[in-house]
């Protein structure tokens, strides 16, 4: 069951698995870890925008869409979600347990490192 921390909805592993299984266009799932962490294992099909790059791209992200952020433990993604909320994003969620809690399928390497936020509209 989801809970709220500082105005950000926290998503559990089971909820994340359900979102992935449904293959809906939203929420847009974004990994906010560093490139080397992403290469070492990430959720299949999930793009990477490192936390420190988000501020340079935030103006190009669609505020009307919903986002779900992932990191190693849930801390960086929570901070990034708070930042996005401050920038006017109404629907940003956090994967609370991060990759430390993920027990599903992984993909390795540089599958999808976002260079242009318009890539997320595909």
UniProtKB/TrEMBL annotation:
Species, as recorded:
Shouchella xiaoxiensis
Q: What is this protein called?
A: Rhodanese-related sulfurtransferase
InterPro entries attached to this UniProt entry: GlpE_sulfurtransferase, Rhodanese-like_dom, Rhodanese-like_dom_sf
Q: Where is the Rhodanese domain positioned along the sequence?
A: 23-108
Where in this chain does the entry annotate a coiled-coil region? none
Tell me which domain of life the UniProt entry assigns to the organism this sequence originates from.
Bacteria
């Amino acid at each position: 069951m989801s809970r709220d921390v500082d105005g950000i909805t926290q998503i559990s592993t089971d909820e994340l698995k359900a979102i992935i299984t449904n293959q809906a266009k939203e929420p847009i799932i974004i990994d906010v870890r560093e490139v080397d962490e992403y290469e070492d294992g990430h959720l299949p099909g999930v793009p990477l925008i490192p936390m420190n790059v988000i501020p340079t791209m935030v103006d190009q992200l669609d505020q009307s869409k919903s986002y779900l952020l992932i990191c190693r433990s849930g801390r960086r993604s929570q901070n990034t979600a708070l930042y996005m909320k401050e920038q006017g994003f109404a629907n940003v969620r956090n994967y609370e347990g991060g990759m430390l809690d993920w027990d599903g399928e992984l993909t390795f390497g540089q599958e999808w490192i976002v260079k242009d936020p318009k890539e997320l509209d595909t």
